[in-house]
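We emphasize that the prediction below concerns an isolated chain of 278 residues; any contacts that depend on oligomerization or on bound cofactors are therefore not represented. The input was used exactly as deposited, without trimming of termini.
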Amino acid sequence: MSFSEFLEYHLIDIGNFSLTVSELFFIVVIFIATWILLFLIKRVVVKTMSKNKYVAGRQYSVFLLVRYLVWIIALVLIIETIGVKVTFLIASSAALLVGLGLGLQQIFQDIVSGIFILFEGTIKVDDILDVGGIVGKIKEIRLRTSTLLTRDGTVLIIPNHKFVNENVINWSHNLKPTRFRVQVGVSYTSDEVQVRDILYQCAAEHPEVINDHPKMKPIVRIIDFGDSAIVFEILFWSHDMFWIENIKSDIRFKIREKFREEGIVIPFPQRDVHMIQQ
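Result of the prediction step, given as a token string:
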């Protein structure tokens, strides 16, 4: 058998479909070329976008979009290589696609949402999000779903349409420190100035609270006169958004300690009940 005859040898021959050695060879070449091309593209994207800190976080999204596009082109070439016309395949399966579309609307909605997320770059890997009251860090963005690592260490698989159709807080979007608050009520017999100084000290002494920026120093203010307490609020800025609840807890522990030392009372609601005997 000559080399040309070997290349034209039919490995699979079923009805109108056949696969020759040369066609299999081209399919393997397309796969290898695709992997090499994607490897080079990834290196170029990472090297180019890493130079700019404002777009460095989008490199994963850009590469993911390019990877999907390259694989679509590669699959079209493979289908054409084995002798199947893509236009004919799409036309003959139009009715099937319509039926699948009606039955899989939610999946298609997730895929379209994933494309928008990757294209716009509003959500990126390592962003810290608040999704329906659940705070977590984005670990992976796929075409249909994304994975969110919560502060409890659990991983949530979230359909992409939730990021598009629902209100989502992206704490990392502006890459700047974020302001948080802690509230506490004290008795009306307390010295307001003393309470203010203690609260300011409790916030300022925490290592994760920003104190060296003139516009981001902690602020203490009275926000309300409640039924049984004067309500104070501490406003502070921090870079550590993911573990912010731990920081708030540390500040509350410190407040309790300082109040106990100074004899400041945190009141609780009390009601007088009058019993009428007949």
